[in-house]
């Protein structure tokens, strides 16, 4: 049993008797993570245990979900009294010809003074209309969600770079975006329901990729606090939903005509097209469901027709292919309620549709030179945005067997800037270029052959197919029955064809209708019932550092610490949960701690993590400090202190979408203020 826990009390050095140390600390091993040892664990529980919760009805009036995407975002809501109806946000102003604007671009425009100006289509269009010299002073940000995934040392002070090169704190950017959605959603809700309570009546849900680590999830929560979605005093009013999970939850509800099987078209599953409708009420709801003009989508009160035929233990993969990332989740159906069990930890990577944009930019660099493209982006940022919008429109029409060319309009400022910068025209650059399949059109366009477009898609699609293939080879992922493609990138015929060709003989590849809204609708359902995913897999191994009695034959000499005549081994890793371990919703890992000194008011416990399971010491390769548990202790009277050691029982939940901690003073049965922090390391 471990004897003392490695923690730090701010910068205060504490000795083992809980007094301020006036003597040097004991010598430590090189590279040790321990700063001081100030609390003793009492009763560690080595495995998660189930803490039954009292069932409670919803204390909220409405659920509002925000699907915060890399390229586009939107919101939807549902009233708790009518959970079968999901209401989509109002139609956005602006939009591109031929593109359904049920979402708005994840684009933010700030004034030169870094004040909020606009978001979405409004931001994009206003930025487009700015004078080129004036545009260089404004801060335009797009696709900034990727930064949160790619930043390994994410903190509250992490910065983002606008198109013009100016920097701003990422937390402010995300807060501006979330505040925009809150204002839009609350206005619409008040229009529909003037009696909506000002505080506490809304449960908010924000979607994030399942592969995001804890710091990124906490970052989104902190941005929501800053945006005023909820108060930090009521964290339960905000749920973080994992994007492929949300899609999986929504797919459970779909009817057969709402699913497209890539191998055989719309699913029929043996049902006759003229299948009778139970009642006129059912028929009315069906008409509403099918209405293309309605912003209200109706979902089944139970499970959809496809799910109803699934057997206990049937397995499927949800591949969420978005703008920035591809997120894979493996679920198993559990009857009779149809709850979901995660079979393998979430996996994926930065293989979203943005990869095609980057390939296009790389192609432009090959044709016109990296130095020119860099200069053009810096000097004419608004024109660069216009160019990428033009490419986006053509990218959506790309298909695997297309024989005709695709024309991408070059802004006049690009053509003029190149002539002045290089002393030749763009047509000359194309003729001299080694890039095949791209020609110049006399109408001022890049004329791309279908082969050229295929080459732009190929690197990104290959990574997605490889990742799905690697996942299917895992022992825990055998016997997959369905592969659901969801997310904005799943609308691409190029991706659909590649996935069907690779896996159509292994399982049925299925795409829901309105595939780009699948996650948003599922996030609403998750907010209405967060218990639907009953078992998740831990993405990492988590634990803390402790001291154990030193065993001569077992422990290395450099870990020996002698104190008051006793030999201790430092830096022992006390495991909370293992990587890829199944953890059920409501299960907790429990530890009891005793403050080192009587009047101690705060306990800080360092958390360590690793992507492997074979950890002995917190100094092992691959182990890093990833967070802290902060326990704030209330004052107790001297009489209580003299009766014995004070025990603080901490419970950590690893089965939810976020790691959570709660604590209680055992002697007084009072709640101890507890928080877990992954952003201050």
Keywords summarizing the entry:
alpha+beta, 17 helices, nine-stranded mixed beta sheet, 681 residues, nine-stranded antiparallel beta barrel
Q: What's this entry about, in short?
A:
The protein is α+β, with helices and mostly antiparallel strands. The protein has 17 helices and 36 strands. It is globular, with a radius of gyration of 28 Å.
Task: Summarize the SSE layout with pairings.
Elements: E1 4-7, E2 36-41, E3 49-50, E4 62-68, E5 72-79, E6 85-88, E7 104-105, E8 107-110, E9 116-119, H1 121-129, H2 132-135, E10 139-142, H3 145-150, E11 159-161, E12 167-169, H4 170-192, E13 202-208, H5 214-227, E14 238-242, H6 243-251, E15 259-261, E16 265-266, H7 280-290, E17 296-298, H8 305-308, E18 315-321, E19 326-334, E20 339-349, H9 354-368, H10 370-379, H11 381-395, E21 406-409, H12 412-422, H13 426-432, E22 438-441, E23 445-448, H14 450-472, E24 480-486, H15 493-503, E25 508-512, H16 518-528, E26 533-537, E27 541-549, E28 560-563, E29 566-577, E30 582-584, E31 587-595, E32 602-610, E33 624-632, H17 638-642, E34 648-653, E35 660-665, E36 670-677
Parallel strand pairs: 4-13, 13-14, 18-24, 20-26, 24-25
Antiparallel strand pairs: 1-2, 1-27, 2-31, 3-31, 4-5, 5-6, 5-7, 6-17, 8-9, 8-10, 11-12, 15-16, 15-25, 18-19, 19-20, 21-23, 22-23, 26-30, 27-29, 27-32, 28-29, 31-34, 32-33, 33-36, 34-35, 35-36
Helix pairs in contact: 1-11, 4-5, 6-16, 9-10, 9-14, 10-11, 14-15
């Amino acid at each position: 049993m471990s004897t003392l826990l490695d923690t730090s009390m701010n910068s205060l050095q504490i000795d083992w008797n809980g007094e301020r140390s006036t003597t040097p600390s004991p010598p430590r091993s090189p590279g040790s993570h321990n700063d001081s040892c100030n609390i003793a664990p009492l009763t560690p529980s080595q495995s998660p245990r189930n803490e039954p919760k009292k069932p409670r009805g919803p204390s909220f009036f409405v659920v509002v979900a925000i699907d915060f995407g890399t390229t586009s975002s939107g919101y939807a809501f549902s009233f708790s009294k009518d959970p079968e109806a999901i209401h989509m946000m109002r139609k956005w102003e602006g939009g591109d010809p031929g593109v359904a604007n049920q979402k708005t671009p994840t684009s933010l425009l700030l004034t030169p003074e870094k004040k909020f100006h606009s978001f979405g289509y409004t931001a994009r269009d206003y930025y487009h209309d700015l004078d080129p010299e004036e545009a260089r002073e404004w801060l335009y940000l797009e696709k900034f969600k990727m930064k949160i995934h790619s930043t390994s040392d994410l903190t509250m002070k992490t910065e983002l770079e606008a198109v013009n090169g100016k920097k701003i704190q990422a937390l402010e950017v995300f807060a501006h975006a979330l505040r925009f959605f809150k204002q839009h959603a609350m206005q619409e809700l008040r229009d529909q329901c003037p009696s909506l309570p000002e505080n506490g009546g809304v449960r908010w849900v924000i979607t994030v990729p399942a592969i995001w680590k804890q710091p990124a999830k906490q970052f989104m929560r902190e941005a929501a606090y800053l945006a005023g979605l909820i108060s930090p005093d009521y964290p339960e009013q905000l749920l973080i939903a994992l994007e492929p999970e949300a899609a999986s939850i929504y797919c459970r509800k779909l009817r057969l005509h709402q699913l497209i099987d890539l191998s055989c078209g719309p699913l029929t599953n043996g049902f006759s097209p003229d299948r009778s409708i139970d009642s006129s009420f059912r028929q009315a709801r069906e008409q509403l469901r099918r209405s293309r003009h309605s912003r209200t989508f109706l979902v089944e009160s139970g499970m959809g027709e496809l799910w109803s035929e699934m057997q206990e233990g049937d397995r499927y993969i949800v591949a969420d292919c978005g703008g920035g990332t591809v997120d894979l989740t493996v679920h198993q159906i559990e009857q009779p309620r149809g709850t979901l069990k995660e079979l393998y930890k979430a996996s994926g990577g930065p293989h979203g549709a943005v990869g095609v944009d980057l390939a296009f930019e790389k192609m432009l660099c090959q044709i016109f030179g990296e130095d020119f493209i860099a200069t053009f982006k810096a000097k004419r940022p608004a024109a660069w945005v216009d160019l990428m919008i033009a490419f986006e429109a053509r990218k959506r029409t790309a298909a695997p067997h297309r024989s005709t060319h695709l024309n991408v309009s070059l802004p006049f400022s690009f053509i003029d800037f190149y002539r002045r910068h290089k002393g030749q025209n763009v047509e000359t650059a194309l003729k001299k270029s080694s890039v095949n399949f791209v020609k110049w059109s006399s109408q001022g366009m890049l004329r791309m052959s279908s082969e050229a477009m295929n080459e732009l898609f190929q690197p990104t699609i290959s990574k997605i197919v490889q990742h799905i293939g690697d996942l299917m080879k895992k022992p825990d992922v055998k016997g997959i029955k369905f592969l659901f493609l969801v997310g904005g990138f799943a609308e691409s015929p190029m991706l659909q064809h590649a996935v069907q060709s690779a896996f159509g003989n292994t399982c049925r590849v299925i795409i829901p209708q309105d595939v780009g809204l699948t996650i948003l609708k599922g996030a609403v359902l998750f907010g209405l019932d967060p218990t639907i995913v009953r078992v998740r897999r831990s993405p990492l191994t988590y634990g803390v550092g402790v001291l154990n009695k030193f065993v001569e034959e077992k422990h290395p000499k450099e870990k020996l610490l002698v104190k008051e005549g006793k030999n201790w081994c430092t830096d022992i890793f006390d495991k909370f949960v293992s990587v890829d371990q199944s953890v059920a919703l409501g299960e907790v890992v429990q530890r009891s701690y005793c403050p080192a000194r009587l009047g101690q008011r705060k306990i800080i416990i360092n958390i360590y993590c690793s992507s492997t399971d074979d950890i002995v010491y917190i100094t092992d390769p691959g182990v890093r400090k990833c967070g802290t548990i902060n326990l704030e202790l209330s004052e107790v009277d001297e009489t209580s202190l003299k009766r014995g050691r004070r025990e603080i029982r901490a419970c950590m939940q690893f089965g939810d979408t976020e790691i959570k901690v709660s604590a209680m003073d055992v002697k007084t049965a009072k709640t101890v203020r507890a928080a877990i922090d992954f952003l201050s390391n």
